[in-house]
Write a structure and sequence with these properties.
The structure holds 2 protein chains of 2 kinds.
Chain A: H1 2-62, H2 68-104
Chain B: H1 10-44, H2 51-54, H3 56-78, H4 87-124, H5 128-154
Helix pairs in contact in B: 1-3, 1-4, 3-4, 3-5, 4-5
The chains are: A mainly alpha, B mainly alpha.
Chain lengths: 105, 156
């Protein structure tokens, strides 16, 4: 009885260790995918805003011949283009990067 | 004092345009995020490795709100006191705001419904992913059409 218990406990310890290992590797995977998603999401949120105001100030500074209306429009179009560029990058990464991660699984 | 071309209530329409641009776009984006978010939450229990792919509807719903933000900032930048702001300009800005706002609302609804079903389906059949992305892009483009019309109106 005691022997059986011993065997059971050693088996449990081994399986616990394995579980811990798996948990750790899952955590590392989650962290790396979180980093990628966080990077692209912040890119998509902040890039158009930064582009809008940068383009506005730069275009205003460099080409004084443009009216205020035209400056606004060009910077809005530039912001939307930057936004779609970032979205395209994210979809590309999700499509092709996602394939690699499922292969390694 | 204000004459008939520049009435005191002229900027009211412009302000309402800026407000409706962001309010309705945010409504659509919120619906899209919430609806596809429930799908992602249900799907991720079984397939957590697909998180990166399944976040795409949420990102696309967020972009709808950015369209509204761009138009709202444009209109808010053009607002002025009644003596320098004609009633015509107010109508134009109201139209621009409503165009992007309601287009964003419609696109957000479409993204939410498609994102929910698409994400759940992708968990079972990964080849659905390309189709889901295409449908999401077509839904997203509805909001972009509203943005184009709004910017075109704004240049009048």
């Amino acid at each position: 009885m005691a022997n059986k218990n011993k065997l059971n406990s050693s088996g449990e310890a081994a399986s616990n260790k394995q579980k811990l290992k798996k948990q750790r590797s899952d955590d590392a995977k989650d962290y790396s995918s979180f980093k990628i998603v966080f990077f692209y999401c912040s890119l998509i949120v902040f890039l158009p805003v930064v582009t809008f105001f940068c383009l506005k100030s730069v275009v205003l500074d460099r080409f004084f011949t443009l009216t205020d209306l035209n400056t606004n429009i060009y910077s809005a179009v530039g912001a939307v283009l930057a936004l779609h560029l970032a979205l395209g990058l994210y979809i590309y990464r999700a499509y092709f990067g996602g394939k690699d991660s499922t292969k390694t699984d | 004092m204000a004459d008939s071309d520049n009435p005191i209530y002229g900027p009211f329409f412009g302000v309402m345009g800026a407000a409706s641009a962001i309010i309705f776009s945010a409504l659509g984006a919120a619906y899209g995020t919430a609806k596809s978010g429930t799908g992602i939450a249900a799907m991720s229990v079984m397939r957590p490795e697909l998180i990166m792919k399944s976040i795409i509807p949420v990102v696309m719903a967020g972009i709808i709100a950015i369209y509204g933000l761009v138009v709202a900032v444009l209109i808010a930048g053009a607002l002025d006191e009644p003596s320098k702001y004609s009633l015509y300009k107010g109508f134009i800005h109201l139209g621009a705001g409503l165009a992007v706002g309601f287009s964003g609302l419609a696109a957000g609804f479409a993204i939410g419904i498609v994102g929910d079903a698409g994400v759940r389906g992708t968990a079972q059949q990964p080849r659905l992913f390309v189709g889901m992305i295409l449908i999401l892009i077509f839904a997203e483009v509805l909001g972009l059409y509203g943005l184009i019309v709004a910017i075109y109106l704004y240049t009048k």
